[in-house]
Amino acid sequence: MALRVVVGNGVGKVAGSIDESASFAPLVGSGVKDIDWQGVTSINSYGVRAFLDFAATWSQGQMRFHRCPAVLVDAFVLVPALLGPEASTAEIVSLEVPYDCVKCDVDFPVLLDRDELEIQGARLNFPAQTCSICGSPAEASEDAQNYIDLASLGAFGRKAVTAR
Ligand SMILES: [Zn+2]
Q1: What spacing in Å lies between the alpha carbon of 107 and ligand 1's midpoint?
Q2: CATH number at residue 12
Q3: φ, ψ for residue 19, nearest 5 deg
Q4: How far is CA 89 from its chain centroid?
């Protein structure tokens, strides 16, 4: 599915695959700082390049990213430059965090506000959730600990006290 970028009410909504055909043109020069990424389904290496070109156009202050799907948050961990220059790292306001239910052997995404993440030294604490199938307590996937790198950049609003 080609990337769809819609701007309305000061918010940019992005959906689909960020790949070689991706264009962020509707957002460039729009002055929009709030972007809702929830509909993004994938990003590949070509998409990363297109995203970096887009990030190079951010001149008017800090961007705010809303409802970032795990595929995108994982890309931010691998390529922190996607969040823009370190001096004005984009804020990740909300994100989908993968949770595991050990009992059902399923994982499911939970949309969390960044204020629900607790930065504790070099660890992130995620709020307890309940498996929607069996009702057992479910924990954030161990992979989500990689998000500490984003906390170190200040992407969650407060910096983790950890050095890379
Ligand atoms: Zn379960």
Answers
A1: 9
A2: 3.30.750
A3: -140, -160
A4: 12
Q: How far is the CA of 101 from the centre of ligand 1 (A)?
A: 5
Cα 137 to middle of ligand 1, angstroms: 8
Domain that includes residue 93, residue range: 4-152
Assigned domain for 157 exists: no
How far does the centroid of ligand 1 lie from the alpha carbon of residue 56, in Å? 43
Specify whether the backbone of 61 is left (phi greater than 0), alpha (psi in -120 to 50) or beta: left
- Report d(CA 57, CA 95) in Å as an integer: 23
Tell if the pTM clears 0.85, that is, is over it. Answer: yes
Q: What is the pLDDT along the chain (164 residues), one digit of tens a residue?
A: 689 999 999 999 999 999 999 999 999 989 899 999 999 999 999 999 999 999 999 976 789 999 999 999 999 999 999 999 888 899 999 999 999 999 999 999 999 999 999 998 888 999 999 998 999 999 999 999 999 999 999 999 876 655 44
Dump the DSSP string for 36-86.
Answer: EEEEEEEE-HHHHHHHHHHHTT--SS--EEESB-HHHHHHHHH-GGGG--G
| 65 CB neighbour count, 10 Å cutoff | 24
Hey, CA dihedral for 79, 33, 16, 146, is it positive or negative? positive
Residue 161 in domain: no
